[in-house]
Every structure is written in C-alpha cells, then in structure tokens.
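Exam revision sheet. Question 4 asks you to relate a sequence to its structure. Input first:
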Amino acid sequence: MIRNYNATDWAACVKLFCKVFNDEPWYDEWTTESASRYLNDIMETPGFIGFIGLSNYEVDGFMFGHSKQWWNGKEFFVHEMCVKREAQGTGMGSAIMSYAKAQLKSSGIQTISLITGKGVPAEQFYMKNGFEEVKHLRMYVAKL
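Answer key, structure tokens:
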C-alpha cells in the first residue's frame, strides 16, 4: 500500500533511514538523533510532500521532498528516498515512485528532480523509472 506521509510515520521513517543509509553501498554513520534532525529539516522546508510505502502495516520505504516554483513551472525535488533492503527489487520503490508521480501531476507539478550517487543501485532504479541524467549539470561541494 502506498499513501501520503503523516506524522504517525515519523519514528518508522527515522529508523528505516538509519538502517538503509548506514548499510551498503552508502556506509553512512547516521544516529537516530542526526537522522531525526536531518529529516525534520526536510519536513520543515516549504512545500514539503512525503510518500510512504507499507507492507503488513510496516513502513518499507518513503520519499520526502518539496515542491518549488521553477522558471518553466512547478517542480518536485526529491531530498530522500529509501526502501528497506528486504523490499528492494520487489517493486516497492517503483510503486512509491508511480504513486508520487500521479499525486504530483494531479497537483500541477510538471517535473521531478533529484541527486544520487554514480554507480550505485539507485542510479539504475531512477533510470528504470523514467529519469534521465542531466548532462549539462554538475554537483559541487566545498569543505569549510
């Protein structure tokens, strides 16, 4: 079952986020506290929208992002999407994406954008779900 996020999903999303991104291929070091702050920052962004994938009443995946105005219309930027390892490859991620696309389109959003790592399974997942690499853009970061 796929549905829109609600506040009762909070703890399950934090727990799932830590489990997914502290495991391969990411090997991050999220704590419950840091993940809570990070996901809360996303939720407090104006235009926040979240989608939840459930199996047996348990959160198996989610997508968090926000809508924003762009020069050519409304855009949804995916800040985070994750699916628990046991549910990867079962269609859960694609079901969340399909539901999100339908909901976003019906609300007048024309495009979805995101950033992901090169050479990780997520890259193939997004391409399989209709995303294309933007060849003329690069992501940059500077340590302070």
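Marking note for examiners. Residues 2-128 form a domain with the Aminopeptidase fold (CATH 3.40.630.30).
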